[in-house]
Write a structure and sequence with these properties.
Length: 387
């Protein structure tokens, strides 16, 4: 047996050379509880420290952008509905706004206010999922039960209006599928009040937990410069001090009339804790916006919620870009029409696709133990990445 004497410094280097040691490559996923779906992270490790990180995407790619070209303007709503399965109503909204802009269409006022209210309720549903699942990934199981209890209160009224629990298919080019059920607005107000009364649980149970704060404070700091470089948006960007929200900065729907109610929540720290705090405070504000929409709808006279469309709907030749402040960030549709009943091209800009790229900057230099905390705080949906 060959005997090796190991000294300090050069001797240790010689031993490493003889043993052929090197950095270890570790795959997180594509099937892993912390990846929120079919996502693969390729990590290069030096001991317990991450040296490099590469998100490997595409495992769920369904070619939605290409399928847009083979569907007419009524059918593409179904494709847009599904890429971020936690934000179905908001996804529908973006594509119908793009088509309506191409057509120069002005939808009824009642439809505008209902769309605004449903968009905010959908935002709350999205955020509650992450407010419950993020502590779960860090070892706290209780918040997920509270989150799903609150989600069910809102799911009931959303399902009553649209007929769907996840994929609402309630938007139409020119307005909404149909009017609201009798007495529905009162039931929504009750549901909003119930959810608001349950939110302090997350303030006390999660943010007040010293273990949660130790795992998230100062961990995974994303700078404002990195936000701009990677096109990060939504609560993640605002947690790094980037004060951008399309609802305020480029108002659409009824947000221009809700300036006094809308609050853009920001933080300067840019860490995992700041991202969670932004998400929680934004949820509270979305409930306030929903209440304001209910107040306005109560004063509107009964009227239509959609426009009569021709049997064959064709958009005029040209291009347009419509973007909205989706729950996870900026969602944009670049629509190109050649005057036919199907889009010639429809390019989707999804929030999660840009947000997840920042992991290449966030993970190197951190410990493997902090990887799940950082990954979970990015609040992404894999279908929104792969489209």
């Amino acid at each position: 047996m060959r005997e090796t004497t190991v000294g300090i410094g050069a001797g240790a280097e010689n031993l490493a050379s003889e043993l052929g040691t090197s950095d270890m490559v570790l795959n997180i996923g594509p099937q892993h509880p912390s990846t929120h779906g079919v996502l693969r992270l390729k990590l290069v490790l030096d001991g317990e420290r991450i040296v490099a990180a590469e998100p490997v995407i595409g495992y769920m790619h369904r070619g939605a952008e290409k399928l847009f070209e083979a569907r007419d303007y009524r059918q593409i709503i179904m494709l847009a509905n599904r890429h971020d399965w936690l934000s179905a109503f908001s996804n529908e909204l973006g594509v119908v706004l793009a088509v309506e802009r191409m057509l120069g269409m002005e939808v009824p006022e009642r439809a505008v206010w209902i769309r605004t209210m449903l968009a905010e309720l959908n935002r709350v549903l999205n955020h509650l999922m992450f407010l419950g699942s993020y502590p779960l990934e860090l070892g706290g199981i209780t918040p997920i039960f509270h989150a799903f209890s609150s989600r069910e209160d809102l799911q009931h009224v959303m399902e009553e209006a649209s007929g769907g629990r996840m994929h609402y298919m309630f938007n139409r080019v020119g307005g909404l599928k149909e009017d609201l059920p009798a007495g529905w607005l009162g039931r929504v107000r009750t549901a909003v009040a119930t959810v608001r009364s349950q939110l302090p649980v997350f303030e006390n149970l999660v943010l007040g937990n010293e273990i949660f704060r130790a795992r998230t404070a100062g961990v995974g700091v994303l700078s404002a410069e990195q936000v701009h470089a990677y096109g990060v948006s939504g609560p993640i960007a605002r947690a790094s001090g980037v004060d951008l929200d399309l609802r305020r900065d480029e108002p659409y729907l009824a947000y221009g009339e809700l300036r006094d109610v809308l609050t853009v929540v920001t933080r300067e720290e840019g860490d995992c804790l700041a991202r969670f705090e932004c998400l929680l405070e934004q949820t509270v504000n979305s409930l306030d916006l929903a209440d304001a929409c209910l107040d306005r709808l109560a004063t509107l006279a009964p009227g239509p919620v959609n426009l009569r469309l021709p049997k064959v709907l064709k958009a005029p030749e040209g291009t347009t870009y419509a973007w909205t402040e989706n729950p996870l960030g900026i969602n944009g549709y670049y629509l190109v029409s050649r005057g036919e009943k199907t889009p010639w091209r429809l390019k989707l800009r999804s929030a999660s696709f840009n947000n997840i790229q920042a992991l290449t900057e966030l993970l190197p230099g951190t410990l493997v133990a902090d990887m799940v905390a950082i990954l979970g705080s990015m609040f992404f949906v894999v279908g929104d990445i792969d489209k």
